[in-house]
Amino acid sequence: MNDGPSPRPGILDISPYVGGEAKIPGVARVIRLASNESALGPSPRALAAYAAAAAELHRYPDGNSTDLRATLGRHYGLDPARIVCGAGSDELIGLLIRCYAGPGDEVLYSRHGFLLYPINALAAGATPVAAPETGLTVDVDAMLARVTKRTKLVFIANPNNPTGTYISRTEMQRLHAGLPPSVMLVIDAAYAEFVQRNDFDPGVELADAAENVVMARTFSKIFALASLRLGWVYCSPRVADVLNRVRPPFNVNAAAQAAGIAALEDVASVDRAREHNNIWRPWLERELAGLGLELTRAVANFVLVRFRRPHDVEGAFSFLHARGILTRKVAAYGLPEYLRITIGTEEEMRAVLSAVKDYMVS
Ligand SMILES: *Cc1c(COP(=O)(O)O)cnc(C)c1O
């Protein structure tokens, strides 16, 4: 018996989010391929802007991220009034769910979708509902079949983490067309800048046209600012108004705003990151496939590798770990046979391949 304060229903059903490991005791130079962070690190211009912000640490930041939203608007051709910035896109994902769903409501996501969707649904007292995928890819018909009168939000990470797969612009349009106007479709395009497919759209077109579509973006991946916590959404003016009522007034710190602007303006840095990924993801995929391993058709800055039995995943993970290489187990996503590996530097890619090779013959 516990007479103390108890949290609202749902909260204790949450399994806390476990991030990728960052350290191995006793290993000085760890190869970190567990969190889909940038292989090349931040833009020198972003670092300079971050450092310059230090002189003003005694000031509150601009609570409206005005300059950052203006820069985002110019960069992507969007109306800044329809952009809301947050401390990482995860803050905005949480706020959207809290504003639009509560007890008795359902939040729909796909079976191997990003875990922050069900976690935030439970935190709001809502019920997360997982639709099955086909071939580790979002299945639009399966999603639509699970929409009920209680569904308030539908989340799609496109491309998805941890599967790395994506759905096309026309599939996303078909999903949207099948949803009632009262249901919000959130397209989480955290990895959009890495995708090199003609039939891919990060969600700009839909979010532009439809009141019930939100596109979420982040500075944590290709812009290499994960530590600063900076994300944004593009949405209808009414949704922006709702978010602006509930978000903390100074949710984005000044250093993050300044570094974000500089990172956006350093187009060459982003191009380098994309080109690096275009070389080393296919390289790692070819090499791992050559070892007889199965991979998903990933289009972001990571691969998802299948080992035939769960204990092989444990074995591979531990073998790599012992060599100072951190990868990500994804059993929490319903994928106990898989290991997710982020694309790192050339040296890191050669090291991880050679370790996997050695594991396979061990
Ligand atoms: C990494 C990631 C994000 C970004 O989260 P931040 O809070 O902006 O760092 C969002 N969605 C998915 C699917 C991701 O993998």
What does this structure look like?
With 362 residues, this protein is of the alpha/beta class. The chain folds into two domains: 18-42 and 268-360, Aspartate Aminotransferase, domain 1 (Alpha-Beta Complex); 44-265, Type I PLP-dependent aspartate aminotransferase-like (Major domain) (Aspartate Aminotransferase, domain 2), CATH 3.40.640. The protein contains twelve helices and 13 strands. It has helices at residues 44-53, 66-76, 89-100, 116-123, 140-145, 169-177, 204-209, 237-246, 254-265, 267-290, 310-322, 346-361, and strands spanning 31-32, 83-86, 106-110, 127-131, 151-157, 184-188, 213-218, 231-234, 294-295, 302-306, 325-326, 328-330, 335-342. A seven-stranded mixed beta sheet has the order 2-8-7-6-5-3-4, sandwiched between helices. α1 (44-53) runs antiparallel to α9 and α10 packs parallel to α12 (346-361). The longest helix has 24 residues, at 267-290. The chain is globular and about 60 Å long. 45% of the residues are buried. The mean pLDDT is 96. Bound molecules: pyridoxal-5'-phosphate. Pyridoxal-5'-phosphate (PLP) binds at residues 36, 88-90, 114, 157, 161, 188, 190, 218, 220-221, 226, 231. Pyridoxal-5'-phosphate binds next to α3.
Would you kindly provide a brief summary of this structure?
With 362 residues, this protein is α/β, with parallel strands linked by helices. The protein is built from twelve helices and 13 strands.
Task: List the main descriptive attributes of the protein structure presented here.
alpha/beta, Aspartate Aminotransferase, domain 1, Aspartate Aminotransferase, domain 2, 4-stranded antiparallel sheet, 13 strands, 16% strand, binds pyridoxal-5'-phosphate
